[in-house]
Design brief:
Oligomer: single chain
Strand content: under 5%
Radius of gyration: 17 Å
Structural class: mainly alpha
Largest sheet: none
Helix content: over 70%
Length: about 210
């Protein structure tokens, strides 16, 4: 980070900050995650920073800042940026329990740009709404398109980490459909990737059959 700043590579520094923020969130440290997201946004406004920052704000209940980012993205010319703006709106609706509104927002976003992260968030909305078959279909599509996560924001920013929680969510959908053996395998796959623990890992261990 210091070397990036010394060389005025501010976007590279922001990428490191946002990655650390995501690690903090995965460990359940929302305060640190928000602080790091704030610091990353001071360095860059690229989608690869703004979008994951917004996801952190949504997850930690900072609705106003998430809406601010959504509005800024929605005002951009690029279809993928406007799609991400709609995605954030959908995430906020999902967190409020407005699942149909959320699903509509994600579908509208996909019409603008069929991006991996939109499919992932749509799957989570279906899951929360207990449309388990639809959720599993989206998570399966995400797995089939896993290569896209090497550069999920269509730039040179490494982003393979977005795959790490996919087995957990697929397992939840499989469990909802009564596919317990498949769910157990998905949960085991997830735990193999999340050795450091955190809220999702704790929940996985409770769901995994002995």
């Amino acid at each position: 980070f210091d070397a990036d700043m010394a060389s005025e590579r501010t976007n590279a520094a922001a990428v490191k900050k946002i990655a650390l923020a995501q690690v903090a969130l995965a460990r359940g440290d929302g305060d640190t995650a928000r602080q790091l997201a704030d610091e990353a946004r001071e360095l860059s406004s690229f989608d690869s920073i703004s979008v994951p920052a917004a996801r952190i704000y949504v997850a930690t209940g900072d609705t106003d800042t998430a809406l601010e980012i959504s509005s800024a993205l929605g005002a951009r010319l690029q279809p993928q940026s406007r799609a991400y703006g709609l995605m954030i709106e959908g995430m906020l609706a999902r967190e409020s329990g407005e699942y149909v509104t959320a699903i509509d927002a994600f579908r509208n976003a996909i019409e603008l740009a069929d991006l991996w992260l939109l499919r992932f968030e749509l799957g989570r909305a279906y899951l929360d709404a207990e449309f388990f078959a639809e959720a599993l279909s989206e998570f399966t599509a995400c797995n089939d398109r896993r290569g896209e996560t090497s550069a999920v924001f269509l730039d040179e920013t490494p982003s393979i980490r977005y795959l790490s929680s996919l087995p957990y969510w697929a397992g939840r959908a499989q469990e909802g459909l009564g596919m317990q053996s498949a769910a157990d395998q998905s949960y085991q796959d997830f735990l193999a990737l999340r050795e450091e623990g955190g809220p999702l890992a704790d929940d996985t261990r409770q769901r995994l059959r002995p």
